[in-house]
Design goal:
Layout (H helix, E strand, L loop, with lengths): L1 E4 H15 L3 E5 L15 H5 L4 E3 L4 H13 L3 E5 L10 H8 L2 H4 L9 E6 L14 H5 L5 E4 L3 H13 L4 E6 L6 E4 L15 E4 L4 E5 L3 H14 L4 E5 L2 E3 L3 H11 L2 E8 L4 H13 L8 E5 L10 H4 L3 H11 L12
Helix pairs in contact: 1-7, 3-4, 8-12, 9-10
Amino acid sequence: MTQLTLGKALGAGLRQAMRDDDKVVLLGEDIGKLGGVFRITDGLLDEFGAARVIDTPLAESGIVGTAVGLAFRGYRPVVEIQFDGFVYPAFDQIVSQVAKLHYRTQGRVKMPLTIRIPWAGGIGAAEHHSESPEAYFAHTAGLRVVAVSNPEDAYRSLRQAIASDDPVVFFEPKRLYHHKGEVDLEAPLADAPPMGLARVVRAGTDATVIAYGAMVTTALQAADAAEDEGLSLEVVDLRSLSPVDYDSVAASVRKTGRVVVAHEASREAGLGAEVIASITERCFEYLEHAPLRVTGRDVPYPPAKLEKYHLPDLDRILDAVDRVMDRPNSLTGADA
């Protein structure tokens, strides 16, 4: 096992994918000489050359459109969107072309395209640099959507995404880029859990907290704090946002009978609403309390000095847990 930051694990995953298959090519703004804004692609230009690590113009629609053409011709392009809020100019390409070409051609054309997006808040960045657009893509049929939460998962899931014949929107929580963890660089990719499976990262019996991306870390911190109060929280990392592994989610909810879903994106029509609706359909007779959401506020992403009031934190998760447990010190209201 090797200690790597999440960012370095992603770089290692790209490097290994490019060594495994010479049809893997990278495209993005400043990914070559600079190594990317977050240095994820650092060193790859020197190893693989400018024909495979391509610095592009500042034109997201053009970047993704070019990647569609490459995928059409048998390559496996990996696109880096420099920041989450920059993906919107490419939205038409992703929704109208990337997601539909395989279906439109009755399977004759594959779209093995991976779209990497540094994602979500927590770094005090300016406007358009801390978005959480995952619900747009999870809503779009024809796309796989993945969100990683730790270095090992980042390394494995990115390699799996690149090897997949499906287009994958791959969300990387930028505030975790420098978080370290153990990564097994030698284990065969075939031995890794499929990227579509959820994972129980902490077992518990009293309530289930469902999260993804950086919120998994916050949920684990809440579980540690709850243990001091005699509560046992089970934490589920969704990992895949489309499709969602509802079998694993339902198994946890049937065990605990209570559920809180946490994500950074706004509450209205967010992924948490879909997860809760699906849990209710599958587990209604097991639920001891209505499921609750802990989310970002329904506002455009705030300035850095107000960020802490926007992002779900340990206290807001614990308050929702108190409410699903019917504990008297909880606040009032339907959602956090």
